[in-house]
Write a structure and sequence with these properties.
Blueprint lengths: L1 H12 L3 H10 L13 H8 L1 H20 L11 H16 L12 H11 L1 H18 L2 H19 L5 H17 L1 H8 L14
Helix pairs in contact: 1-4, 1-5, 3-4, 4-5, 4-6, 5-6, 6-7, 7-8, 8-9
Length: about 200
C-alpha cells in the first residue's frame, strides 16, 4: 500500500500545471520562454501575474494533497516519516514530471504545499520570511532561498520540534533548494538576477 501511495504522490507532483495552462489558454510552452522552468515564477514573468498565481496555487496543492494521502488510511494517519516521503515524492514529480518529458520546475510551490500540510506553523513563519524579503528586494529566488533556510530554524527555536525526521527534512530541504537554484545563486552573486515587477510602471 505504501508503494501505491508513493507512486500516487509522484504522479500528483508530475501534473505540470504551468505547461498545461500555457498550452491550453496561451498556445505556448512556458518552458520555451523566460528561465525555461515550468513553475509559477516563470509563468508570472511570461504570462502575467494572474496565471502565475493560479499556477502557484495549483502547484502548492499538489504537495499538500500528496502529504494528506497518508490520512486516507487510519494506520498511516499522523505518520510523519511517511508524510515526508510522500511530500518529497511530489516535489520530485514536479522537478521531473512524467507528464511533461521529465522537464519541470524547481519545486518551490509544491514544497510550500508540502510543509504547510506537515507543519503549518513553521510553514507560515517561512512564508512570512519570504514576504519580508520579497517586498524588500522583489527577487523570488533570493526570497525562496532565505525562506527555506528559515524553516528548520523556526522548527527548532520557535516550535521546539521533537521529530528528528522532520528536522532532518528541514535541513535537507535547504540543500535541495540550493541545488535547484544554482544558476540563480550565480546570477545573484553577479548582480544579474531579475526582479519581479508588481506593477506595470514599476522599474
Amino acid at each position: 500500500m505504501k508503494l501505491i501511495l508513493v507512486l500516487t504522490a509522484y504522479l500528483l507532483g508530475s501534473m505540470p500545471w504551468s505547461v498545461w495552462l500555457g498550452r491550453i489558454f496561451y498556445r505556448v510552452d512556458i518552458r520555451d520562454y523566460g528561465s525555461g522552468n515550468a513553475g509559477a515564477t516563470n509563468t508570472m514573468r511570461v504570462l502575467g501575474t494572474t496565471p502565475g498565481l493560479v499556477v502557484l496555487t495549483l502547484d502548492a496543492l499538489k504537495g499538500f494533497a500528496a502529504v494528506k494521502l497518508a490520512n486516507l488510511f487510519p494506520a498511516y494517519a499522523g505518520d510523519i516519516e511517511l508524510m515526508v516521503v510522500l511530500g518529497v515524492c511530489s516535489v520530485i514529480g514536479h522537478i521531473f514530471p512524467v507528464f511533461a518529458g521529465f522537464k519541470g520546475g524547481k519545486g518551490i510551490a509544491t514544497l510550500l504545499g508540502m510543509i504547510i500540510a506537515i507543519h503549518s506553523g513553521a510553514a507560515l513563519m517561512a512564508i512570512a520570511t519570504f514576504m519580508v524579503f520579497f517586498i524588500s528586494f522583489r527577487i523570488v529566488s533570493l526570497s525562496s532561498i532565505i525562506a527555506a533556510l528559515s524553516f528548520p530554524v523556526w522548527l527548532i527555536f520557535r516550535y521546539h520540534e521533537h521529530s528528528r525526521v522532520l528536522v532532518i527534512f528541514g535541513f535537507a530541504m535547504v540543500f535541495l533548494v540550493m541545488i535547484t537554484h544554482q544558476k540563480n545563486i550565480e546570477r545573484l552573486l553577479n548582480g544579474e538576477e531579475r526582479k519581479i515587477r508588481l506593477r506595470k510602471n514599476e522599474d
